[in-house]
Amino acid sequence: MSESSPVAPQRPEEPLARAPLAGLDIVRFLTEIFAFLTFALWGFLAWPFPWNIVAGIAAPAAAILLWALFVSPKAVIPTHLFVRSFVELLIFASATIAWWSMGQTWIGIAFAVVAVTSGVLAGRRRLS
Questions:
Q1: Helix, strand, coil percentages, rounded to 5, for the chain
Q2: Residue 102: closest CA among 6, 38, 34, 53
Q3: Confidence class of residue 51 from pLDDT cuts 50, 70 and 90?
Q4: Residue 1 pLDDT more than 60?
Q5: SS3 of 79, please?
Q6: What is the pLDDT of residue 14?
Q7: Virtual CA dihedral for 37, 39, 41, 42, nearest 10 degrees?
Q8: Which candidate, 60, 56, 82, places its Cα nearest to that of 71?
Q9: Residue 94: closest CA among 57, 54, 39
Q10: Burial of 72 (0-12, 13-18, 19+ CB in 10 A)
Q11: Per residue in 72-113, pLDDT tens?
């Protein structure tokens, strides 16, 4: 018999645990998607023909780029919480103004209330 050192089996590493999704996370995601769709709709409806295609593609693309750079959970440029909040507020305020400029004031107000409320709740959760 050969003498070999016994090798104890090791547990495989567990993947990083992710926090469970809460209802607030779903509302936040839906407000983001609604803002991006608002920019597309605004771009396609608020401008004359050749420019509506450009604005309908560029406006949501710019908002998505800002979101990915600063606000996303895996943001490319890690920034302070207040900078993230400012960029997020800028995007949501722009979507609200887009609804107002299309003559849909009540949709803009309802979106602003939902976006600000979910933003405040999410910010409080991040700070705790």
A1: 70, 0, 30
A2: 38
A3: very high
A4: no
A5: coil
A6: 65
A7: 160
A8: 82
A9: 39
A10: middle
A11: 988 999 999 899 999 999 999 999 999 999 999 999 999 999
